[in-house]
Amino acid sequence: MKRTFVFAVLAVALMLVISACGAPATPPPAPTQAPAQPTAAPAQPTQAPAQPTAAPAQPTQAPASPTTAPASPTSAPSGGTDEWGTVTVKKGDTIKVSFSAALTGDLAQFGLDEQLGAQMAAEKFGSDINGFKIELLSEDDQCSGPGGTTIANKVVANTAIVAHIGFMCSSGEIPGTEILDKAHIVSISPSATAVQVTARGLQTVFRTAFNDAVQGPAVANFAAKELKLTKAAVIHDGSPYGEGLAQAFSDAFKAAGGTVVGDMEAITVGEKDFRATLTKIAANQPDVIYFGGFWPEAAVLVTQKNEVGLDKTVFISSDGTYSPKFIETAKDAAQGQYASFGSAQQGNTYADFVKAYEAKGGKKENIVFSPQTYDAVNVLAEALKKASTVDADGNLVIGRKALADAVRAVKIDGVTGGISFDKNGDRPPESTNVVINQVQGDKWVQVFPPPQPTPSPTSGTSSAMPDLGGKTITVAVENAYPPFNSIDTATGKGVGWDYDALAEICKRINCKPEFKEIAWDGMLAAIAQKQFDMAADGVTITDERAKTVDFSDPYLTVSQVVMIRADETRFATLADAKAMKDLKVGTQKGTTNYDEAVKAWGENNVVGFDQFPEAVNALITKQVDVVVADNSFAKQYLSSNADKIKILADPLVTQYLGFVFPKGSDLVAPINAAIKAMKDDGTLAALEKKWFENQ
């Protein structure tokens, strides 16, 4: 059934100002040679990290080019084989894992926060890796390109190091991991979020942080769908973070129906006069300016835009601008402007993590990326257990490629929610939440998604329906998935099972459904971000999705079926069709139908289409041999194409459908109460007959 999950759940996080992550104003020069090896990390910081008050400073120069790293360890350890080489940890020794972040300077509060998270995880998860312990070797990467290059060279020089946790910022991550990857050293960053980090497809690079490819589209969707803005100008600060965000926003804004006017403009960090750039932009009269960068430049831009005829133009930026310093510096010009804020979700063990963090001397209000760092070490520990063996002499042998493969295969429930990785080393988008904040007075105020009031149940008997007090509930639908939802061509209005069911549900619990159309490939991502209160759209309940969103109780049981051409003679049963491994199988991309088709026939035989009707047309025109679809959908097409298609008797799989909510939504209980009542009194059965049997 529908659908493969795309976004995520609101969580707690503090400033992601390092998510960019720009380099400090005065980065250290690149060394002419690498020092011998990192020093051991202290047991824990002597004091809790200070609360950050501003976004990190920006780079004033480009990162240094990485030096060439050796292709493999300088000496091949004994005791095992691996195409990338192996590392042998002698009996009684420790597993060396390097860690880097900004541990001194302006950004030390962020780095010390990460360091504490790493140390906590090493103690908890790294104490027994097949009888060996993890030892962290800490280094100061200065959140810079030269710093990342320096640390990477030091790590490569020490062939005892198995993996790296870092780098803190994208400016150091990108050149640093180029070096580590050439040496086949696995790295997991907890906070480098630039699109370019994983877009390179390096086989050793992973991150427990989110990808700015998530944040940019979320902001674009807000600008286009909520603010109804249509013409955007885009500016960035030249950093990997800023440029990546700007491109992601631009692409998504155009996909949402907006227009990006003029060229994407790049400004120079540290300058104080951007009037020439803004005057050029003003000629196109955009109704919104998006800026990918940090608060110092944002404050200048938002002030000077008003001087060149752009005073009515909305200004939107992202987490690099989400700082009190922006408000203090821009003063009145900051009022009403927007900034997004990306954060990781909270897993089931987040509260326990906070308690442990405080027990180590940390303060809850100082937590930034320590949860992601904790998860990064946890992931590495799990992978090390699978990628290592103890030889006859009692030594631990770790294959470098085996370790990379094991990290990619990890699936755990972390402090920041469910963790797994795609082929590029990214977590699924649902591990990220993006909110939009607006300057109101002297503070940032979250405006989207709006805070959710807690519904109060109606007093009286236990059987009374909850009363939501007339609350408007935003419901995401595709309007292209009959019989659940579609647009009536005669009236131009939405119709289908979803519309009728939600109308009845809200009648019973005193609410008002407000349907919002959104494409499937962004729908669940938006739900997970709390951009909408819930999603309908015939979504299959799965254990994997339940890790990141909440589901209602099932309202419908459906089957996935196999559609074939009416004149098909090569097979007549599902078993016969599954036995033919050369069949071309059509279905919609990003759905559980696609997943089940791959299980049955293999990914090379499955052709993904953007929408199911395209797959059915491909079947009729003999571009594919069969189509996997939901029974309800298949029956609709059978009714109007009985001379062209038919459905095999046996279902491919049977599944349950439910409404989808952000994690922790207070709407689940009242919606479930209405669903139960509608089951009990026959209303659901009547709706099923209307939309699935009589169509």
How would you explain this protein's 3D organization?
The protein is α/β, with parallel strands linked by helices and 695 residues long. Helix content is 33%, strand content 22%. It contains 21 helices and 33 strands. Strands 21, 25, 26, 27, 28, 29, 30, 31, 32 and 33 form a 10-stranded mixed β-sheet that branches. Strands 7, 8, 9, 10, 11, 12, 17 and 18 form an 8-stranded mixed β-sheet that branches. The chain has a 5-stranded parallel β-sheet with strand order 3-2-4-5-6, with helices on both faces. Helix 8 links the parallel strand 10 (288-292) and strand 11 (314-317). Helix 8 runs parallel beside helix 9, helix 11 crosses helix 12 and helix 13 crosses helix 20. The longest helix is centred in the first third of the chain and has 18 residues, at 108-125. The protein is globular, with a radius of gyration of 27 Å.
Summarize the main sheet. Answer: 10 strands, mixed
Stretches with pLDDT under 50, minimum 5 residues: 3-79, 452-462
Distance between the termini: 19 Å
- What structural class results from the helix and strand content? alpha/beta
Based on DSSP secondary structure assignment, what is the total number of beta strands?
33
Fraction of helical residues? 25-40%
* Rg computed from alpha carbons, rounded to a whole number of angstroms: 27 Å
Give the averaged pLDDT, no decimals: 84
Q: How much strand content do the residues show?
A: 15-25%
Q: Count of helical segments? A: 21
Label the overall shape: globular
